[in-house]
Specification:
Elements lengths: L8 E3 L2 E3 L6 H7 L9 E5 L5 H12 L1 H4 L7 H4 L20 E4 L16 E6 L2 H14 L9 H10 L7 H10 L5 E6 H6 L1 H12 L5 H10 L2 H6 L35 H16 L14
Parallel strand pairs: 3-4, 3-5, 5-6
Antiparallel strand pairs: 1-2
The chain binds 3'-phosphate-adenosine-5'-phosphate sulfate.
Length: 292
């Protein structure tokens, strides 16, 4: 069963959602004007994007930390390629925060200025796959595939939005010297959120008091985020997410893949991914009880 063109279109070898972006917009991204003070959060889908969007927003906006501003994540850290709210990115005040699923070769060329900060968050690909599979049930923009085995085959052949996980992560690591980039993993965030928040503050050159750091950590925990209407994506319109069928903050753990993948599926996954993964300069954590 091949993916439907209703949900995927390829632009320069990378899969996008056809309802949410046009070729003209993608063409224009190359020359999108970058500021030194911009911060770009880049991820493969389902790797901890909204989590890190929330952390960035909490670090950079006092009004988010102290709850005096009721601005949601899509306004705080909009997607550069999917401008869902038709925002005027040019008139945004600095520092502008952006999220993106773009591969290294499609980001604005100004990002290679060596100054603009890029944060790349990755997650072990089996949990990405499982999270993606569940996401497809409630995102009206992602094709739902009931059979997990079929969805997995699409994932491991790159026939999903954002194409092949391996290509995405390999590309960003291989070209890391072209960018001022901080690499993080979902798993290190999960194991030690405070250290990750401090790492991000340090990278951004942002000094927060101990108390402010505590607030960021507290508001970025899974349980708190799930209840935070500015952060849990329940503000997303129902023509994009069918909230009766699922939730963005689903389980938020490491190792959920073990609850769905059969032994045979796991072996099949490894037979396709293992060799290339071993060459990545990063080791993943596959279970919540594993050491990093
Ligand atoms: S998307 O569609 O690409 O923007 O999705 P993304 O935000 O990258 O990934 C969604 C998964 O991230 C989990 N999540 C969290 N985990 C732990 N703590 C916090 N605070 C948190 N916030 C989001 C979310 O639950 C999705 O993972 P799964 O495994 O489906 O629960």
């Amino acid at each position: 069963m091949q993916p439907s063109e209703k949900y995927l279109f390829k632009y320069k070898g990378f899969s996008f959602q056809p309802d949410l972006v046009t070729v003209e917009v993608l063409d224009s991204l190359e020359d999108f004007e970058i500021r030194d003070s911009d911060v770009f959060l880049v991820t493969y889908p389902k790797s901890g994007t909204i989590w890190t969007q929330n952390i960035l927003s909490l670090i950079c906006h006092e009004g988010h930390r102290d709850g005096t501003e009721n601005i949601d994540l899509l306004d705080r850290v909009p997607w550069v390629e999917y401008n869902i709210r038709n925002m005027d990115y040019i008139s945004r005040v600095s520092p502008r925060l952006f999220a993106s699923h773009l591969p290294y070769y499609l980001v604005p060329k100004g990002l290679r200025n060596g100054r603009t900060k890029v944060i790349y968050v990755s997650r072990n690909p089996k949990d990405v796959l499982v999270s993606y599979y569940h996401f497809a049930k409630f995102s009206t923009k992602v094709e739902e595939v009931e059979d997990f085995g079929i969805f997995m085959e699409r994932f491991i052949s790159g026939n999903v939005l954002a194409s092949l996980w391996l290509d995405h992560i390999e590309g960003w690591y291989a070209h890391r010297d072209d960018f001022n980039i901080l690499f993080l993993t979902y798993e290190e965030m999960k194991k030690d959120l405070r250290s990750t928040v401090l790492k991000i503050c340090n990278f951004l050159g942002k000094r927060l008091t101990e108390k402010e750091v505590d607030t960021v950590v507290n508001k970025a925990t899974f349980d708190k985020m799930k209840l935070d209407q500015r952060a849990n994506y329940e503000f997303m319109p129902s023509d994009i997410l069918d909230h009766s069928k699922g939730t963005f903050l689903r389980k938020g753990t490491i190792g959920d893949w073990k609850n769905i993948m059969t032994v045979a599926q796991n072996e099949r996954f490894d037979s396709v991914f293992k060799e290339r993964m071993e060459k990545l300069p990063i080791k993943f954590c596959w279970d919540i009880s594993d050491e990093l």
